[in-house]
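note to self — DONT lose this again. spent like an hour looking for the file last time. sequence + predicted structure for the chain T wanted, 417 res
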Amino acid sequence: MASSREKFNMAEKPQKHSRLWYALERFLAFFYNAPVGGKITKIDCKGLKPPYLILGNHASMVDFTMMIKAARPHPVSWVASIEEFNGREHIFRRMGNIYKRKFTNDITVVRHILHVLKRNKGIVGMYPEARFTLAGINERLDKALGKLVKTAKVPVVTLMLKGNFLRSPQWNKHPYRKVPVIAEMRQIITKEDAETLPAEVLQERIEKAFSYDDYAYQYENGIKIKSKERATNLHKILYQCPHCKAEGSTYSKGTKIWCQSCGKVWEMDELGILHCENGEDIFTRVPDWYRWERENVRKEVRSGNYRFEDTARVELLKSSHDGFVPLGNVKLTHDYNGFSMRGEIDGKPFEYDRDPATMYSCHIEYDYKGRGDAIDLALPDETYFVFPLNAVNCLTKLHFATEEVHDYVAEQRAANK
């Protein structure tokens, strides 16, 4: 293995799962799942055995322990974002895990997945949305999943959790809410399917399986969240007021979210429904408000007027030993040319460019490790965490805009061929 002071060695093949670490995983998973119930219903899984690919929706850390429970008595090798290896690379290697830089096209990762499936005859666990859900609903998937399954020729299982988002939404992870978590483990692609069906059909099956709504689950099952902080930081995703249309004007605390521009106030009740206290109930569900914001970003991008610019602090994820290394401040831009950063680091010009065609989405973190709101921008051999310094509550819009610019630019380039 390369020295821990060197860059992460992306080429090193994943190890076989350590029996000691797997025993510890199962021990910890038992206690971690106990408070949430963790009931798993298995469908069409009779006779299922490794190797296979297990795909899950992702909202909180309980997702990992539920997958351990679902796959037992066999260990899972996860495809994990590289920052998760920071400071614990040796442990993650012993767990058989695979490096991944988010939203980069890296054939090495595919080779490692195939190595675990074909050579190690193991189980590979993936969260194909490649991020936590922000509003309790499904996010976009990588369009190459069907091709991966076609190449691997192994069964595909989904593990779809309900209640995991409600218990710990990304914009307000703690304290945990008292919400039961359940899961459905379903084989959606058999080995024969993987061998005989076209990649496009396999992709369609996967995308169809990834349709969920945790707020609908809450309301339909009468799950009351009595936490007095249930709406705190909700403005991180509901950044635009549906009444006055102002962006970055919302704020939230306790059980309320309000617009600091027009004064409209909403109360979130125990079933997750929003009630406007001084105006029309334009949106009563968080996912509907969230989708409306996305549609507004889509219109802005397609009008030709979209552009984001700010000064940002940049940190480089250098190695497992050195972790995040502060580089300095740069000019951050996102427009129809993709993401760019310009500045001076250690007296030398610093430039970063990412073509929108190579980035179908982006990973964002609200108040990452207490250091501020961050965007994860990567290249095949570098990972930068970028912290906008002046723009108010801009992450969710950047998340939408990355996807919409990708689509728009791809359409324009196709039309001009």
